Amino acid sequence: MSRQDYMNTSVQEPPLDYSFRSIHVIQDLLSEEPRTGLRPLRHSKSGKSLTQSLWLNNNVLNDLRDFSHVVSLLLEHPENLAWIDLSFNDLTSIDPVLTTFFNLSVLYLHGNSIQRLGEVNKLAVLPRLRSLTLHGNPIEEEKGYRQYVLCTLPRITTFDFSGVTKADRTTAEVWKRMNIKPKKVRIKQNAL
């Protein structure tokens, strides 16, 4: 990747916006035109978008099959993807493919059908994740929802569109001590 291409890839670029397109499967992105915004999308010489933001909100996606492949066909530098909006779809889990985008700093998953709070654990490997939304999913009803997410993802600064305060962190730590049992270390019998 040339330095010039890298410099041209920016969060300031308008997003590649496929919101409200009735998209059922990720492959549909290849035949669908993205929405146009106030500023035009810039493209590389190969015709791929130079943005770092992909908006897929308000569609009918229930899985992310072929996500990496399709994103690599749409974006010049998919490894620089920093913002993914998958809000208001029909996702029931957090697909592990999202954890392969190490520059991801904003991830919107609100208004889906994510059932298990443990799904959040998958996101702990994302070093730059700072803003996450999960409200409007069934997991929001689980006891300790906010505290669990803040314990699992200590680097996030905004959760469900509200800033994470020092008091939130303290409450989450107390909750963790009261609710998450440390893993027991098993000692082999013959080691004694």
TrEMBL record:
Keyword flag Transmembrane: yes
Annotated Gene Ontology cellular component terms: cytoplasm
Record's keyword annotation contains Cell membrane: no
Keywords: Cytoplasm, Leucine-rich repeat, Membrane, Repeat, Transmembrane
Compartments, record wording: Cytoplasm
Protein name per Swiss-Prot or TrEMBL: Leucine-rich repeat-containing protein 51
Source species: Mustela putorius furo (European domestic ferret)
